[in-house]
Q: What sequence folds into this?
């Protein structure tokens, strides 16, 4: 379960102060499919970063599976992120000198000493995203859509309890967008909590909850 | 069937990043190589000069050197470099000594014949010597004694050791300044270049570094990765530079001071690598403290 408890985040620059997320409390139950929509600058990504423990809230607490993220040390928080969260971004950000399979196995670099990732699962995930034949290729040999699918496989390798995605379908053609969306649905049906920040309101069909943000404030929840 | 567990290591990531831009890695290596040669070469040369001057003055222990006419330069070389070309043993030591009565010349406490028949550093002579080493009382003035010696021994070339070495020291000062500037420029170049390379690397890879952070990389891990990307090529370049410099010194001088040379080499490599790593610290800190989600949006 993810709990946001009176969380608030403000960005300050020299001349202005932007309330990216105004004081907000929310509980996301395991297995939920949540989409966060809103205009650019509404605070979607900030809310996602707060849930993922990537930025520290000014006030309030963020609890993931009972752990108060900001009561943990950076090492503990990073380990929790490695074990329980998977991230998918607008850009795949694959490492160009590693093969597709190695890119999928990348999260294993952050597992504690003595632990490892399941090679068969990595191959199976590549198969699920239709890239089993490309396992030994380098990222530049794949199309943008294929790279995005590798990024999804990478995010799912360690069976995360929570999948967080920031604009995962931006810049994709319709077919790839449909494939990625279907994959998120599949992952969610398997029990993973999915939280997506997006402009794409088509995803709301699959969502169990739809949060609409405006000026850092959740204006509508359904 | 149990799952086959695999794990990428920090080394895999480091190697992947070093391979990504071979030119940049090579540039980092080359810069450290040049800086190490400059630092190692300079410090070793300076230490060598200092040691030669110190040991020769101490060994000779001469305040004034008497030589046959026409051998002033040879004596100068002996006093400053420790070796001299051959000088025939034509000085009758006892006879020259007999001219130095206390009424004419005072302040002399030692008088010793030295043979340079075969050149080099020379050795104690018999009754005939190539040169004569004169030691003075600590209160005697070498310049006043020189005037007295010129009068007492008109056939002798009278060389004041202090004067001779002072001239060399003046030349050395210029050389030291040039060498020091060379080493400084080399080190500064390495520092600026490596800082620039690290900044470019971090700026180009913001998205990837942010992605690694979301996967579970700690701030310390990201910082270490960036520092290692600068440090590893610097270490490789430093080691190659130190080996090349040491080989050049051994080949040129046939030095028997291998242990000391090794220490200077290691010191230079450590110094250059430390400078490189310290310069990469700022980009490394930037990588560790950036907002990962913001970074992934480029």
A:
């Amino acid at each position: 379960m993810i709990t946001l408890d009176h969380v608030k985040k403000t960005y300050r620059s020299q001349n202005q102060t932007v309330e990216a997320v105004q004081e907000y409390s929310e509980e996301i139950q395991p297995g939920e499919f949540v989409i966060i929509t809103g205009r650019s600058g509404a605070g979607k990504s900030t809310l996602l970063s707060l849930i993922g423990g990537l930025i520290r809230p000014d006030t309030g607490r963020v609890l993931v599976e009972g752990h108060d993220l900001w009561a943990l040390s950076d090492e503990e928080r990073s380990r929790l992120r490695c074990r329980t969260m998977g991230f998918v971004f607008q850009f795949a950000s694959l490492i160009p000198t590693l093969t597709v399979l190695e890119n999928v196995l990348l999260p294993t670099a952050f597992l504690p000493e003595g632990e490892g990732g399941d090679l068969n699962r990595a191959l199976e995930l590549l198969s699920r995203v239709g890239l089993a034949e490309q396992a030994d290729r380098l990222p530049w040999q794949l199309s943008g859509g294929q790279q995005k699918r590798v990024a999804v496989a990478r995010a799912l390798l360690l069976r995360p309890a929570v999948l967080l995605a920031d604009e995962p379908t931006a810049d994709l053609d319709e077919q790839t967008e449909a494939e990625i969306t279907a994959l998120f649905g599949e992952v969610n049906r398997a029990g993973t909590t999915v939280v997506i920040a997006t402009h794409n309101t088509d995803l709301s069909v699959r969502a169990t909850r739809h949060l609409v943000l405006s000026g850092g404030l959740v204006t509508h929840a359904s | 069937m149990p799952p086959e567990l695999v794990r990428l290591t920090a080394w895999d990531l480091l190697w992947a990043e070093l391979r990504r831009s071979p030119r940049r890695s090579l540039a980092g290596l080359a810069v450290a190589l040049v800086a190490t040669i400059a630092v190692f070469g300079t410090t070793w040369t300076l230490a060598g000069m200092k040691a030669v001057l110190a040991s020769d003055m101490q060994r000779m222990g001469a305040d004034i050197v008497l030589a046959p006419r026409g051998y002033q330069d040879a004596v100068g070389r002996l006093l400053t470099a420790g070796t001299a070309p051959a000088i025939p043993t034509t000085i009758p030591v006892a006879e020259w000594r007999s001219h130095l009565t206390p009424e004419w010349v005072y302040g002399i406490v030692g008088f010793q014949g030295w043979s340079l028949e075969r050149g080099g550093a020379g050795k104690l002579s018999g009754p005939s010597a190539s040169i004569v080493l004169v030691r003075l009382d600590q209160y005697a003035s070498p310049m006043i004694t020189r005037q007295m010696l010129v009068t007492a021994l008109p056939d002798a070339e009278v060389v004041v050791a202090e004067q001779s070495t002072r001239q060399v020291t003046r030349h050395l000062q210029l050389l030291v300044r040039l060498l020091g500037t060379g080493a400084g420029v080399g080190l500064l170049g390495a520092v600026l270049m490596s800082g620039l390379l690290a900044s470019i690397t971090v700026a180009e890879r913001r998205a990837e570094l942010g992605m690694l952070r979301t996967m579970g990389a700690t701030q310390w891990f990201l910082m270490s990765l960036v520092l290692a990307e600068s440090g590893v090529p610097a270490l490789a370049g430093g080691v190659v530079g130190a080996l090349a410099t040491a080989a050049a010194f051994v080949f040129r001088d046939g030095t028997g001071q291998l242990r000391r040379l090794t220490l200077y080499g290691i010191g230079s490599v450590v110094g250059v690598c430390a400078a490189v790593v310290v310069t990469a610290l700022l980009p490394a800190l930037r990588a560790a403290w950036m907002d990962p989600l913001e970074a992934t949006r480029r």
